[in-house]
Amino acid sequence: MPDSLLFNTSVMAEYPVTLKKRATADEIQADLQGRIERMIARDAKYAGCAAPTPKPIPSRSGGAANWTVTGFPNLAPGCYTALVQIVDQARQEYELVS
Question: Among 2, 42, 59, 73, which is disulfide-ready with 66 (CB 3.0 to 4.6 Å)?
């Protein structure tokens, strides 16, 4: 009886399984803003930071993000690194749909 735990890894690498949430730009932006607001609730120094708008880009590989941001509106002092971390995390979680 064949072992059910043996996988053909060459096929798996060719067709990666993505478990990304599918969302529109407005939905992703709302999620980003929610994360920023939770960050502000923990530390008031981030007050004034705003969520950027996601823009579609061609995906380089099967699991790569298909969106990015072109800038950070209303960037308050000290927000840049935290916003980059939030956007990077969201890019791993979301697939942008029209």
Answer: 59
pLDDT in tens, 15-33: 556 588 999 999 999 999 9
* Per-residue pLDDT tens digits for 31-70: 999 999 999 999 998 888 889 999 999 977 777 899 999 9
Cβ atoms of residues 45 and 68 within 8 Å: no
Q: How far apart are CA 9 and CA 33, in angstroms?
A: 39
**Amino acid (one-letter) located at 68:** T
For 13, left (φ over 0), alpha (ψ -120 to 50), or beta? alpha
Report how far residue 97's alpha carbon sits from residue 21's, in angstroms, rounded to the nearest whole number.
10
3-class DSSP assignment, residue 56: strand
Domain residue ranges in the chain? 20-96
- Strand pairing class (54-56; 94-96): unpaired
